[in-house]
Amino acid sequence: MKICPVKFFTKKLGGKWKLSIIYNLRNRSLRFGQLAVIIDGISRKVLTDQLNQMEIDGLINRKSYKESPPRVEYSLTKSSLDLIPLFAKIDDWVGLHSINRDS
Q1: Could you read off the pLDDT of 1-35 as tens digits, one per residue?
Q2: Rounded to two decimals, what is the model's pTM?
Q3: Range with lowest mean pLDDT among 49-53, 54-58, 75-79, 92-96
Q4: How far is CA 31 from CA 9, 48, 64, in A?
Q5: How far apart are CA 47 and CA 91, in angstroms?
Q6: In 21-92, beta strands by DSSP E
Q7: What angle do CA 103, 19, 96 make, to 5 degrees?
Q8: Contact between 71 and 64 (Cβ < 8 Å)
């Protein structure tokens, strides 16, 4: 049985925040606090839950540093890096369609 690509994509990346998290990690690693500030409207609890699920799903890497205070950075896995061309297309599409916001 062939899996529907849209269904698979939606299952792994659906919801309000996962694509925003990946989008913001596309060029660099970020700490939790940086993500919390950059992603407007996300609560710290929801961000924690999403990061944990994304790590389980193999979408992000979590790197802990043995420092005081503790430091944790998040970055994209190879799987998520493969999505970067898609985000470039989304940027192009938004640029074309944001001119006429009533459409």
Answers
A1: 888 989 988 888 988 999 999 999 999 999 999 99
A2: 0.85
A3: 92-96
A4: 26, 12, 10
A5: 23
A6: 30-31, 60-65, 71-76
A7: 30
A8: yes
